[in-house]
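Quick look at the format.
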Amino acid sequence: MATGVASKFHRAGFNVLILETETPTAIRRSVALCEAAYDGVMMVEDMTCRKISEIDEAKKCWNEGSIPLIIDAEGKSVKELKPVAVIDAILAKRNLGTTRDMAEVTIALGPGFTAGEDVHVVIETLRGNDLGRMILQGQAKPDTGIPGEVGGESLRRVIHAPSTGIITHKKQIGDIVKQGEVLFTIDGSEGQSIEVNAPFDGLLRGLIREGLQVKKGLKVADIDPRTDIDWRKISDKAQCLGDATLEAFYFLSQRNGER
């Protein structure tokens, strides 16, 4: 979702800087710019994201048309850069420290924020008629814990780790899988290895990075029953949220008297 937002601002001509944790746990890694945190460079569609170690390196990325990413989970870069906008697209279902005084425009995606208090605008992320709606007062709808229905599947399409341990891939993102096939294993600290199988036929659209230590219950994979979609492109939902966030930015900028 964050990549969808970053793409819209980047393509609109803004200088975008991504702040990331040291070990991001994205599932749909083929369309997640945060993978640059591991590999140094990540390409999604026509965008290139480069990991930087110092804020001063960001300008070089902007000049070459790429998006810089820096490891800064606490958001210390915000005070140094004084950006025109701060967008919280962590989607943690709670506020991890974003405040309205961080920038002239502050926008948060999803539940856990109150528009008018924590941030200026909240963007609705729940699938349905209100997806992408701009909320100026109040909160987004609470997290249901139930994934939106895609191709007739909902709960089964998102796979959570059945135990704590290290992920080892048996399939890769983009693979067409059959029900019962082993997608990955989780190797625990006591030597046990648990196989995780595909719950139905479909396209393996998301799979957490191999070698990561995952906790029991963490979302680690995503199967789409639609096998004809392009898993290398930003999703419709991410694009919708990106458009909504860009709209909210311009709305707030005009309201603040900026043109």
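Next, a different chain entirely:
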Amino acid sequence: MLPLIIQLISGAVGGNIAGAVLKNLNLGPIGNSLAGLVGGGVGGQLLSMLLSSAGASTVAGATSGLDMSSILSGVAGGGVGGAIVMAIIGLIKSRVAAKA
């Protein structure tokens, strides 16, 4: 449960950082955080699945524990996933607004 919480928080932070950097795709603090939460959960889980399917038994064991590598992979996967989902939603929003 704790790795998922780390991924969600990292996703929210990643979404807000991406919103600050990509000003034209910014959804506001709440929108960035919500999109980041979704992206953090999904991105963190995907990274965890990819790393554990790579066959490394230490990585598969690390995803269930709280060692430094599992925390860093949760932060990285969550942050990147949050930023990507926020950017995609921001791009869709800006394209729809441009057509209206």
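The CA atoms of residues 43 and 81 lie 4 Å apart.

See the schema section for token definitions.
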